[in-house]
Amino acid sequence: MHTDCVQADPSTLARAAKLLRQGEVVAFPTETVYGLGADATNPEAVRRIFAAKGRPSDNPLIVHVASVADVAPLVTHIDDRARRLMTAFWPGPLTLVLPKSDRVPPEVSAGLDTVGVRLPAHPVAQALIRAAGVPIAAPSANRSGRPSPTTARHVLEDMDGRIPMIVDGGACDVGVESTVLDVTGDVAVVLRPGGITPEMLREVLGEVRVDDSALRPLVTEQPRSPGMKYKHYAPQARMIIVSGGETARMRRMQQAYDEAERTGQRPVLLAARQRQAAFAPRAFSACGSVDDPTAAANELFAVLRALDAQDYDLIIAEAVDAQGIGLAVMNRLGRAAGFDIIDAAD
Ligand code: TXA
Ligand code: MG
Fold first, then answer.
1. What is the pLDDT of residues 128-150, one digit of tens each?
2. Which atom of ligand 1 is nearest to the CA of 226?
3. From ligand 1's centre to the CA of 337, what distance in Å?
4. Pairwise CA distance, residues 148 & 155, whole Å
5. Distance 59 CA to ligand 2 centre (A)
6. pTM > 0.90: yes or no
7. Ligand 1 pocket by C-beta < 6 Å: which residues?
């Protein structure tokens, strides 16, 4: 299959919408990461997503809509909490897990009685969903086991020959996937941290729990979000994270680097760009900025893809403060490193 990678404009969006209506899979930009979309009401189309991604079919997909009104047919009811969250954060990087209606085929929900729904903020995503005229099921547009794509080029790296079309809408804004919030129980639970932080959610809801899996490897057999049980992206190289007070942390990172080099390995340091001078002349890859945690979220997946293309044996990453969007960054770093975290203390 030839994969057409096209700039988003009215004529390419019309073509993409037509492909979606015909049951094909199209990759498109959202404000978080690129998605691999198909008609959520067409089981055959949804199966094509799993085939293109190489994804286990027991991991449910998020359904993307172009307006709040489009959620009603997908769910059995929308309670007051869900309404308030939609008003506060949609369009935007928040997925709400709600009780699903019969409109959502089991292929989308992986047999669960709930469905994740999201109204993305990206104008290209909105225009495409509207033009298709159907809700769009879409996971991140990476091959299973690779970092989520934040540019059309990343999608092409993973999907060339596997899907008919990629709509290029430039680099994604947030850079990590949406916050997944389960609002089916008494207390809302963050199943996956993302651009809408627990702090922001608490301002609207009061009490919000963060699932233990956010900063820890999963131990239970029955995760609340099936996606959590899969070993996510893991780099070719071994990866460790160093936490602790700034001075101790940086000293420990240098030690780990120098030890690795002495034993004949090729290490690289992954840290805020301001650290480069202090770490020189060691191999260094910048991710984010000490005073701007959103930059680390934005750059992380592209940096991990770039590191994977080089032949490092060990990636030594600097921990970030798990506050605000830093929680999403630490969650993705942690999963990439298998939560191998060294505490350098103070
Ligand atoms: O930002 C995003 O959310 C991107 C863009 C394309 O919208 N999509 C995305 O989809 O990251 P995906 O499939 O890569 O991740 C969806 C996550 C998985 O961990 C899945 O298990 C969880 O959401 N999920 C989906 N539906 C669920 C449900 N009904 N209950 C619990 N977890 C659910
Ligand atoms: Mg994904």
1. 999 999 999 999 999 998 999 99
2. 21
3. 21
4. 9
5. 10
6. yes
7. 30, 32-33, 35, 59-62, 93, 95, 97, 109, 112, 114-116, 118, 138-140, 177-178, 180, 191-192, 225-227
